[in-house]
Design goal:
This protein is mainly alpha-helical. 65% of the residues lie in helices and 0% in strands. The chain has 10 helices and no strands.
Length: 200
Amino acid sequence: MKSLNYQNILNLKMLSKKTLSIVCDLLMNIAEKEKQVEITRQVLCQNLNFDAYQIFSYLDHESKNYINEINLISFLNKKNGIHFTSEELEFLILLYDQNFDARLSYSEFLNIVLSDNNYELRKKARERIGSCSDNPTIPFNVEYSLVKLFQKILNLIRTTRKIIEELKMRNDFNVHDLFHYLKGYGNITNESMKIFLEKN
């Protein structure tokens, strides 16, 4: 395996220390907030009253077989007093929308609520799906954890977009040079990311 040669990389247009520091903030923000999202998912999945299909049906109160921005506004803003912009809610849908139709199918919704890292917990939570789907409401403790999960995802979106906007304002920043700075030789790897974060 070729070792990373940052001397050659630095021959590209120089990214300032301040810009590199903002990139580090961006990466650390994503890592930390994604970890918080996953912890909240696991809390939700451990709840014995959790039934993903029941939650999906509850949010999709018009029985359209999908969830859109209007459903999220209704659930978060109107019902629970949690205020995020329409644009932020659109970004949330975009994160999980695999076929780019600007809405979430049930299978896409599962990727929001089921654990991403704990296979056993994901499996157990899936086994409870359909166990109480006739109930038109969801238990308070499930709703509370669901609201927290949406808040964590939306906070990730909000802070990430804010840092990206700050980066775009930097005269020395461009994606091409950053990509080459991060990758060393070949592709961006765990090793190259670790070296980048340690250096900056």
